[in-house]
Amino acid sequence: MFGKIKNKSILILMMTVLLLLVCACAKKEEPAEEPTVPDTSETQETETGKVMVVYFSYTGNTKILAEYIAGLCEGDLYEITAADPYTEDDTRYDADTRAYKEQHDPDCRPEIEGQLPDLSGYDTVFLGYPIWHSEAPKICYTFLESVDVSGKRIIPFCTSAESPVGSSALNLEALKPEARWDEGIRLEVEMSKEEIADWLEALNLSE
Ligand SMILES: Cc1cc2nc3c(=O)[nH]c(=O)nc-3n(C[C@H](O)[C@H](O)[C@H](O)COP(=O)(O)O)c2cc1C
Predict the structure, then answer these.
(1) pTM of the predicted structure, to 2 decimals
(2) Is 19 among the domain residues?
(3) CA–centroid distance, residue 161 to ligand 1 (Å)
(4) Which residue range is the domain that position 177 belongs to?
């Protein structure tokens, strides 16, 4: 009789252990809990709007930086080209040259070669130029007076041998006060693409 009870107890014990094992395994297979914070990394793209990089460059310094900017912003590029190209004699650094005379003539607006860009689809326009006799080349004035930039954000940048941006950007702004102008900045000609990327990040183009 005691033997029967003992066998029954062992059987119950084994069944209990089996049941516990089954429960433990079943728990392990439960699906992982859903994360409480949804992963939005793929949907948080920065919305910068459409960018156009307009530039004038005579010896190529401003062009390089303009190309970096357009590449980094996935923007479009437009080069302002003079209908009457500047020669070496035109641009010598003295008082008797074409460039000097143009820069000191308030009414001078050198003609632009080819078609002007349609800026209607762009939110932000970078405007790059070299400093010529302390100001933006007059052909940049021609450009601004020929396009509609109302309500657009304009970011002027210049390169130079040593002169600061000075009044050059403010004088451009005076031609189109209906745009939203950033303060002008002088960029070092030897800036790397990474340094330009850091500058662009600080501009908060999404705002
Ligand atoms: C006609 C002319 C005038 C210039 N005037 C100045 C100036 O006033 N101050 C200055 O620092 N650099 C001056 N420079 C130098 C240019 O601003 C500088 O080399 C610039 O980076 C050239 O840009 P780019 O290669 O895009 O044309 C002048 C250059 C030229 C051709």
Answers:
(1) 0.80
(2) no
(3) 6
(4) 51-202
